[in-house]
Amino acid sequence: MQAKGKVHKFGDNVDTDVIIPARYLNTASHKELAAHCMEDIDKEFVNKVQDGDIMVAAKNFGCGSSREHAPIAIKASGIGCVIATSFARIFYRNAINIGLPIIECPEAAEAISDGDIVAIDFDTGVITDETTGEEFRGEPFPEFIQNIIKKGGLINSIK
Question: Does the pTM exceed 0.90?
Answer without folding.
Answer: yes
